Amino acid sequence: xxxxxxxxxxxDETRVPLIPETALKLTELGAELVIESGMxxxxxxxxxxxxxxxxxxxxxxxxxLTSAEVVLRLNKPPAGxxxxxxxxxxxISYLDPFNDRELVMALAAQGVQAISMEMIPRTTLAxxxxxxxxxxxxxxxxxxxxxxxxxxxIFPMMMTPAGTLSPARVFVIGAGVAGLQAIATARRLGARVxxxxxxxxxxxxxxxxxxRFVQIDIGDTGETRDGYAKALTEQQLExxxxxxxxxxxQADVVITTAQVFGRxxxxxxTKEMIEDMRPGxxxxxxxxESGGNVEGSExxxxxxxHGVRIIGFTNLAGRVPKHASQMYSTNLGNLVxxxxxxxxxxxxIDPENEIxxxxxxxxxxxxxxxxxxxxxxx
Length: 378
Ligand code: NAD
Known about the structure:
Distance between the termini: 34 Å
Number of helices: 12
Structural class: alpha/beta
Radius of gyration: 22 Å
Largest sheet: 8 strands, mixed
Mean pLDDT: 95
Low-confidence stretches: none
Strand content: 15-25%
Shape: globular
Number of strands: 19
Strand order of the largest sheet: 3-2-1-4-5-6-18-19
Bound molecules: nicotinamide-adenine-dinucleotide
Helix content: 25-40%
């Protein structure tokens, strides 16, 4: 079975989909691996390393796309490349299926069996394939390092003959995968950390990392059966903002990670709240790609609002490309291994498979994923 891995087309993408270690695992399974020349370059892996473990290195991208029975990527495919894909081929990558309906429709029309890495179920069984989690935990770490590098003060308390320096105060909003890693990183650097999440179930995790959990009574919040937060009502968000405002004025660094799966991120920090913050404070809006938690944050940019620096960088995990590639590649390799039929030496797409029920989006010319069909009103 030919497994093709094209190079990521976005020149700003620093991560790569497959590192040599995973490539070796795939060839050992019996895959005929073909990679586009330069595919691993962005994170320091040369063609020769892939050739050494039995992969074919090709210059002709079009040939790879048209001949592969399985295509592995990181980011969603460019629209112009869909018609190159073979009918019935399997395509695994991020797809952004809730927002990119056109792309999903095109994949269905081409007869591609498209798997979305965002839709891997959040279950114990699928944990080793969960790219959202692996990239989010790196992003949480990076958010803190980015803030620390810009803050005019240090994170830890320091008692010196030249006086005592008080520790930085960090406030993390949203204590999911990224938020918990941000809390852990800020704590390791010695900051005083507070955190808030609408899911009360995370209070214990926050406290076990040495941070304070902020309690706000906003009534019933709950979570979905996958462990995701539910959207709040406008009244609940209003109550939340009032308490957040108080915490933000005391904070040196605010990191927002609040997301509601498949929907626009909730707007939590308003312009008025920013005006009340101390000049020199830093906000990192980690939800900027899904609409932003912070009023005035800009995708991919760093802006100054009343002396407060708002960071809206995208692809934070891409700022540690080697580890980000390693983790994504491992997730991808584990998924392929899970679906691999060792006797036939092929990938077996059984729509009844528990993992595929969550992440297989198109098959047989149609959209087959129940959640996506519902989101599209089909
Ligand atoms: P996410 O990125 O969708 O959201 C980040 C956080 O924002 C969540 O903790 C959410 O509760 C919070 N949030 C939403 N609205 C908010 C608001 N208005 N104010 C404050 N916080 C708000 O979530 P995630 O980090 O990808 O995952 C969420 C949870 O899913 C995890 O904490 C975990 O319980 C579960 N999960 C399970 C597995 C597994 O079992 N394999 C893997 C990953 C995640």
